[in-house]
């Protein structure tokens, strides 16, 4: 066990005085360094050797041999000179040894001295410090790595995390290729990770595992498997119950407990390559590994495909904090600020921290639990600082002061391997926080042997009774990141689980898999004050899912406490697609302070907005859900999809194909119509379609190439697995869905980029056929185009539409038919909208060669078009009775209020001009 810092300082003062007058390098240097290590309570010969022979750089690129004054593999090189000699030359001499040192043995530190002065270099952080020997006690914490106090700066993006996972991946592959696989391999690797971490984090004697591996196992690896089995047995045995004749190196290891080393495994057979790989793993600084992300990286090594994107499969700390801060952490810190000046209230607050219990019902490798635990321990550290600050404060044994422990944390994970990693990750972060406390208070603290464990259960969270894991009355918070699996990507088992949970909900087959966790949590927290928060794909707050999920949650009394609206969930790996997510905090009891985190840019930082209420669309508006509505809420033209040929592409032509076809059959020219879908409409692409509805049989007989196309369509339909499609083969010249207006009509793309502030819409003439990738609004006029092209409608779209990846997916039943149009607009307001709408169309015409995609790209949108839309927004806002809105959130809140009012009115109440009456609800 390391000495306390107070004792180390006292020893440093004694050491400085003892060596104050020494000057001869040759005579006393070795005794000097033996004494230096003794300052820290460490025996030098256990760690480092004198006069290590290595190759070194010489002049003109040649090499020679040299002797390192003192070498601690992987940690420290010491070069010592006589008093008054150049320390710069000593440093250069130390660097000259590096080419001859194996990669795994390269040190982090170089220490040079001339007795009178010490200069320490930290090569990792590119820092150095120099001071006289008499001031050693003032700088003693620079040498924490000798004492076992080395403070580690844990960086999530630190390359050591990737390197560690990659090295373990190599070892995994070698063992698996040799036939050592499955459960035994997984447990072996988890144990090795613990040993590697323990070696660098002060749990084992300094580099004890590495030294044992190098000195007590054969270079060819032949005895490494049995030796590891013996080591694991020793680590699982209390020191007083071990054999008395154990090798001294293996007997020096601490008793670990925690059942980590309890299970007897088959003995793995190693070779020289495997042993060398394990030694390469030892060379990394495992004390700097982040348990928060290493677990997920480690998990990915089991999947070769996942390993190609190593780094893609973990949740960033930043995103985890977005959830835990509003769920509980901000509140706890605020409470600490209120009580920190009162020792009695601090005592009660500290007890409260110990009483908190957490559950992650989809914990994976434990990253949410790890970060939550770390943040609680950091808060506890502030509590201890406050308790032991001020005049007259007396430090009490830190072993009695620390209360927060890993047994406050529970998890459910469906796979065995991540569940094991999660448990070990919690122990690792616990030790890292214990190290932090040790450095802070100068007293070593470690929870070894392990006496408490996190409660990680392997099982299916949607089928388990969560009360069997942790009775609800004892739980404080539920949190996590349940799996993102859309309805179409679910396997049969997942689909069955959602079907059983939502048995009373008609149409539940479209729900995302994550909704199962919301319903399970809502049922579990009945009669409690448990607060919950999940990260989810934003699809559960858009499109048709809210009308299926949220009525069930409302029936259980669920209320939303906070929400992060859509933001981009980036991963660190290159080439990995980002996911667009939301975070929803909820509970059975209500809270006074509700917050919506709004993102002006999904890739940017949010700003917090206080809310009176948060509804299923994550806006400050009444708790309403939009049903699938067959007809518009207001008396406006109905919308429908375009045409759906189901023709196998035989009726569709590029301009070149059309020209070639007509060249061979000129009589077919008059039966071609322009064909427009989303892509053609937005990007200006040209496509054509054969439309044969009005062609008489005798005319068709004169068009043999057209007849070939008709026959090809008939055969295509007959080969379909769908009975309705096979039936359609009886009328091969007709489409499956036909929507062909007899007057100019409005076209709305089904899918549009989220980068655009507006979904481009436009009017089409009757000589155009539309595909089912666009919506068609017959009988529409400038007024309808103007309102639908406004920010009011776009705010509604952004909050209610579904998404295809991150792009807007417009819908008839949810978006258009539920949209609340202006109430009682007068002729002046209608005329203003029509005038502004025409100006938008005119502004587009100023760039005749630009596509709508070009015109509405935020980087290339012409100023004239921007101004025209601004004028249109003012006209539409005025029709809604508002001069202006400050944000999308304000617009949507207004529209939901209006929607609620419309749906509570008697049927067919007149709404004013254009007969905008509310129609009967479908």
Note the topology.
Elements: H1 5-18, H2 25-39, H3 44-47, E1 49-57, E2 63-72, E3 76-80, H4 87-96, E4 109-113, E5 117-122, E6 127-132, H5 144-147, H6 159-177, H7 182-200, H8 208-216, H9 224-235, H10 248-251, H11 272-283, H12 291-300, H13 304-307, H14 317-339, H15 343-355, E7 358-360, H16 367-387, H17 398-401, E8 409-413, H18 416-441, E9 455-458, H19 466-469, E10 477-480, H20 492-501, H21 515-524, E11 531-537, H22 545-555, E12 559-569, E13 579-587, E14 594-598, E15 607-611, E16 640-641, E17 652-653, H23 655-664, E18 672-676, H24 678-683, E19 688-690, H25 697-701, H26 704-718, H27 723-728, E20 745-749, E21 751-752, E22 762-764, E23 768-770, E24 774-777, H28 782-788, H29 791-800, E25 802-804, E26 807-809, H30 812-816, H31 827-845, H32 852-855, H33 863-879, H34 888-904
Parallel strand pairs: 3-4, 7-8, 7-10, 8-9, 10-11, 12-14, 18-23
Antiparallel strand pairs: 1-2, 2-3, 4-5, 5-6, 11-13, 12-13, 14-15, 16-24, 17-19, 18-19, 20-22, 20-24, 21-26, 25-26
Q: How would you characterize the overall build of this protein?
A:
It is built from 34 helices and 26 strands. It has 922 residues and is of the alpha/beta class. The chain folds into five domains: 5-147; 159-307; 317-484 and 519-545 and 556-611, Rossmann fold, CATH 3.40.50; 630-641 and 743-922, no CATH class; 645-736, no CATH class. The strands form five sheets. The protein has a nine-stranded mixed beta sheet with strand order 9-8-7-10-11-13-12-14-15, sandwiched between helices. Helix 18 links the parallel strand 8 (409-413) and strand 9. 42% of the residues are buried.
């Amino acid at each position: 066990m390391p000495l306390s810092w107070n004792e180390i300082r006292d020893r440093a003062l004694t050491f400085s005085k003892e060596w104050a007058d020494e000057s001869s390098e040759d005579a006393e240097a070795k005794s000097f360094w033996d004494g230096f290590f003794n300052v820290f309570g460490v025996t030098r010969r256990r760690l480092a050797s004198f006069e290590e022979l290595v190759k070194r750089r010489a002049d003109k690129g040649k090499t020679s041999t040299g002797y390192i004054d003192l070498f601690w593999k992987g940690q420290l090189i010491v070069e010592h000179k006589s008093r008054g000699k150049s320390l710069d030359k000593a440093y250069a001499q130390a660097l000259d040894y590096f080419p001859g040192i194996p990669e795994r043995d390269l040190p982090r530190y170089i220490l040079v001295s001339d007795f009178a002065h010490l200069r320490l270099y930290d090569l990792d952080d590119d820092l150095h410090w120099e001071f006289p020997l008499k001031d050693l006690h003032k700088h003693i914490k620079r040498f924490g790595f000798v004492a076992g106090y080395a403070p580690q700066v844990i960086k999530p993006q630190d390359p050591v995390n990737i390197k560690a996972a990659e090295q373990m991946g190599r070892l995994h592959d070698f063992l698996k290729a040799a036939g050592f696989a499955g459960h035994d391999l997984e447990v072996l690797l988890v144990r090795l990770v613990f040993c590697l971490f323990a070696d660098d984090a002060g749990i084992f004697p300094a580099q004890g595992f590495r030294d044992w591996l190098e000195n007590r196992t054969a270079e060819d690896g032949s005895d490494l498997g049995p030796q590891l089995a013996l080591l694991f047995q020793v680590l699982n045995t209390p020191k007083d119950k071990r054999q008395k004749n154990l090798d001294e190196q293996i007997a020096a290891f601490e008793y670990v407990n925690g059942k980590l080393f309890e299970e007897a495994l088959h003995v793995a057979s190693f070779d020289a390559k495997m042993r060398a790989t394990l030694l390469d793993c030892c060379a990394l600084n495992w004390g700097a590994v982040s348990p928060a992300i290493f677990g997920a990286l480690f998990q990915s090594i089991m999947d070769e495909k996942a390993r190609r994107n190593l780094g893609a499969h973990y949740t960033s700390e930043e995103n985890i904090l977005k959830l835990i801060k509003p769920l509980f952490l901000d509140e706890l810190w605020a409470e600490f600020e209120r009580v920190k000046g009162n020792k009695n209230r601090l005592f009660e607050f500290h007890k409260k921290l110990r009483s908190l219990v957490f559950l992650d019902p989809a914990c994976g490798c434990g990253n949410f639990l790890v970060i939550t635990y770390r943040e609680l321990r950091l808060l506890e550290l502030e509590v201890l600082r406050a308790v032991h600050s001020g005049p007259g404060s007396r430090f009490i044994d830190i072993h009695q002061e620390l209360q927060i422990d890993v047994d406050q944390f529970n998890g459910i994970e469906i796979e065995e391997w991540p569940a094991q990693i999660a448990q070990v990750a919690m122990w690792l972060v616990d030790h890292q926080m214990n190290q932090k406390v040790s450095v802070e208070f100068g007293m070593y603290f470690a929870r070894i042997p392990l006496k408490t464990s996190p409660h990680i259960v392997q099982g299916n969270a949607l089928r388990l009774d969560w009360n069997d894991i942790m009775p609800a009355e004892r739980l404080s918070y539920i949190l996590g990141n349940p799996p993102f699996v859309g309805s179409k990507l679910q396997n049969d088992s997942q689909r069955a689980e959602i079907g059983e949970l939502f048995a009373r909900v008609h149409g539940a087959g479209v729900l995302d898999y994550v909704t199962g966790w919301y319903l399970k949590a809502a049922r579990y927290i009945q009669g409690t004050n448990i607060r919950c928060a999940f990260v989810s794909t934003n699809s559960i707050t858009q499109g048709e899912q809210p009308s299926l999920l949220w009525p069930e949650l409302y029936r259980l009394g669920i209320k939303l406490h906070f929400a992060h609206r859509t933001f981009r969930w980036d991963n660190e790996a290159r080439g990995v697609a980002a996911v667009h997510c939301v975070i929803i905090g909820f509970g059975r009891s209500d809270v006074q302070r509700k917050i919506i985190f709004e993102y002006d840019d999904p890739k940017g930082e949010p700003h917090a907005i206080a809310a009176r209420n948060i509804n299923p669309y994550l806006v400050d508006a009444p708790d309403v859900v939009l049903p699938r509505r067959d007809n518009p809420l207001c008396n406006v033209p109905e919308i429908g999809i375009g045409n759906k040929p189901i023709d196998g592409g035989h009726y569709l032509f590029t301009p070149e194909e059309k020209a070639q076809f007509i060249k061979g059959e000129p009589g077919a020219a008059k039966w071609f119509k322009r064909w427009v879908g989303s892509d053609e409409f937005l990007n200006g692409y040209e496509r054509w379609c054969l439309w044969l509805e009005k062609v008489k049989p005798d005319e068709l007989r004169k068009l043999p190439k057209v007849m070939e196309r008709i026959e090809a369509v008939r055969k295509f339909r007959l080969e379909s697995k769908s009975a309705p499609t096979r039936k359609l083969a009886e009328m091969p010249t007709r489409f499956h869905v036909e929507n062909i207006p007899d007057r100019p009509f409005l076209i709305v793309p089904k899918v549009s980029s989220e980068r655009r502030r507006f979904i481009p819409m436009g009017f089409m003439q009757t000589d155009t056929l539309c595909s089912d990738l666009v919506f068609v609004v017959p009988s529409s006029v400038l007024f309808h185009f103007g309102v639908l092209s406004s920010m009011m409608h776009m705010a509604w779209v952004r909050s209610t539409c579904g998404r295809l990846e991150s792009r807007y997916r417009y819908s008839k039943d949810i978006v258009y038919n539920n949209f609340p149009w202006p109430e009682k607009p007068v002729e002046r307001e209608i005329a203003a909208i029509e005038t502004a709408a025409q100006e938008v169309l005119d502004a587009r015409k100023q760039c005749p060669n630009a596509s709508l995609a070009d015109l509405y790209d935020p980087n290339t949108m012409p100023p004239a078009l921007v101004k025209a839309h601004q004028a249109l927004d003012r006209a539409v806002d005025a029709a809604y009775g508002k001069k202006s809105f400050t944000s999308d959130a304000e617009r949507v809140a207004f529209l939901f209020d209006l929607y609620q009012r419309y749906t509570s009115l008697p049927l067919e109440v007149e709404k004013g001009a254009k007969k905008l009456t509310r129609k009967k609800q479908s």
